[in-house]
Design a protein that fits this description.
274 residues, MetI-like fold, 0% strand
Amino acid sequence: MGPPTRPPQPELSSEVPGQGRLLSLGTLERAPWWVLLLLAGGIFALFGILRSPIYRQTYNFLAPAIVVTLKLAFTAYGLAMVLGLFAALGQLSRNPIPYTIARLYVEVVRGVPLLVQLIYIAFVVTPIIADLTGQRWMRNDMVRATMGLGIGYGAYLAEIYRAGIQSIPRGQTEAARSLGMTPWLAMRHVILPQAIRIILPPLGNDFVAMLKDSSLASVISVQELTYSGSLLNARTFRSFETYNVVALLYLIMTLLGSVGVRGLERWAGKGFRH
């Protein structure tokens, strides 16, 4: 008789029972359902606009206001970026005069609601400047709105700039100074290029916020999206259709802006890794 044979043993699976089910559930939980819901809602809204003559008329009336809204947001944000940078550098200065001016600007502007600032600049500050200088273009509604939003957001951007600059190690400044650079050259060629990668994402987020806050310009009769929607509603009394389209257009613009901000974040992250 030969040696006794062992009965075949069942193969042991390396998978934990239920692991595949758990992974699939976890994958489903992490799926961007909000994106799918937004796409479904957007397709449904677009289908409704294309089918309904009322929605098409509403969109055709509001379409020029989209350009005004984007122009206002970009110009005001450009002004805010310049003011914010100068205010941040003033707060980092050892000279008490620019430090005091910059700090006073940041604290006062951040302590007053943006709507109040916009009204005050539009109806108090710019008329005084126009009378003193004789520059009638200062009374233009678009100019007044740009100044109001730019000055208001400049104070918030100043804190973003300041935090980004202060996050750079002091050794970078000392190394630049040891090479014979002046403080201005060290800031321009060494500190700011490194800080810009840190502050790009929050700057992008603030631009999206300004895009929405540009609706405040409707209080001074700027022909942007919200004001145009109010005019159309006053003419037609179709509040449902009008403000549906207004909300949808704002949502599309802010979502596109958010996608751009995420792209900046990825770009900044790659810059740090490389």
